[in-house]
Design a protein that fits this description.
Two copies of one chain form a homodimer. Chain A is mainly alpha-helical. Chain A contains seven helices and two strands. The first copy, chain A, has helices at 3-13, 18-24, 37-49, 73-84, 95-102, 108-137, 148-184, and strands at 53-58, 66-71. Chain A has a two-stranded antiparallel sheet with strand order 1-2. Chain A is elongated. The interface between A and B is large, with 69 and 69 residues. Chain A binds a DNA duplex through residues 1, 3, 17-20, 22, 34-39, 41-42, 45, 60, 62-67, 91.
Chain lengths: 188, 188
DNA sequence: TCCTTCTATGCAACTCGTTGCATAGACAAG
DNA sequence: CTTGTCTATGCAACGAGTTGCATAGAAGGA
């Protein structure tokens, strides 16, 4: 279970409430890890009762009070231990690949629309990443020497960019293949 | 839940028992979908009682009898319906990206070993895919015109190959970045 | 004024997925 | 002769993740 560790990293980067974490999981961290607010609140509570996190009630004006969590010594130790353990898996779940193979037993025109839709999603996401890269990592380029945290965030983002580019090229390959099949073998 | 649909596709490609499906999920289909035998047996039972699949008891010699499942009309209809629905998500879970960002708060040497290990895994997997491609998709190239199912399986495999290549290149980028950080900023 | 949206937290119920364990016959190696 | 591996199926328990719903004050627009 790495959700705990993702939360530890995020809170080390900047302390925050469950709500704020949920927002981060929709953005920067969400590029490579998804979580709903339910999961986050539940796990935060458990981590706090396990002594991994500290809480601080922060009263606010014009909006509800929030609980700001930060990483305690135990939490930092737990993260460090996890960083030194090997991890496995990256369990793959590619619905689209299932669909592509399934298209052999069905009308391929539905597949074409689906693939085009996915291509659009990945294309938009790529544009979003590139905009974020411009904004976050090329602004004060000559000014401050970028710190380690920034460099590491940047290389993760570059991974996202490479993934989207690769995916778009592959989806084009899929489209070309399906069209070729449709042209050369009009009957099912 | 697309496990049902992955099973339908696999059984359409070739009927088989739960055990055989589990083996396939370790290989070809496992390239883009993982499932344990527990999940498979449980889902097969449910799908059969829902009328999506038919069963046939096959006695065998020298080994236990097996239940060979095949797709019933209802199952085929369910698959067809799913193929015509849009799907979302591809929910991302990249433990390694969490670790990379976490390395900003820890000794990066552990990260280097981990990244090198992953690079090896992906490199092996790429070699495995390429061997599979040679074997399955370039053998009788000029002889028979490849059918739609084969072409679609091939394009899925090409996706896996592109993914591994991209990942290896990215891991090299990660390694270069971490080394650069270690060289330029020897103190934490 | 009412409706929606945003911040902020949480419960309850459910499904999905993993892990550990059990059975059981056949076969091969030590 | 015992141990281990392969085929083949399955139960029980747990943990992870999703969905629906609820509360509640503040702000802004129709």
């Amino acid at each position: 279970m790495a959700l705990e560790h993702a939360i530890l990293v995020s809170l080390l980067e900047k302390p925050g409430s469950g709500y704020e974490l949920a927002r981060r999981f929709e953005r920067s961290i969400g590029y490579f890890w998804t979580a709903t607010h339910q999961q986050i609140y539940r796990v935060l509570k458990r981590m706090e009762s396990d002594g991994l996190l500290g809480v601080r009630e922060v009263p606010q004006q014009g909006r509800p009070d929030k609980k700001e969590y930060s990483v305690a010594g135990l939490g930092r130790a737990a993260l460090s231990q996890w960083l030194h353990e090997p991890i496995e898996s990256e369990s793959v779940r590619h619905d689209l690949a299932v669909k592509i193979r399934g298209a052999a037993f069905d009308d391929p025109s539905a597949l074409i629309h689906e693939v085009e839709r996915h291509r659009q999603v990945h294309s938009d996401r790529l544009a979003h990443y590139l905009a974020g890269e411009l904004c976050d990592f090329t602004g004060p380029e000559a000014s401050a020497p970028p710190d380690a945290g920034q460099e590491l965030q940047h290389v993760v983002l570059r991974g996202g960019i490479a993934y989207e580019r690769m995916t778009i090229a592959w989806l084009d390959d899929v489209l070309a293949t399906v069209h070729r099949l449709g042209a050369s073998r009009p009957r099912t």
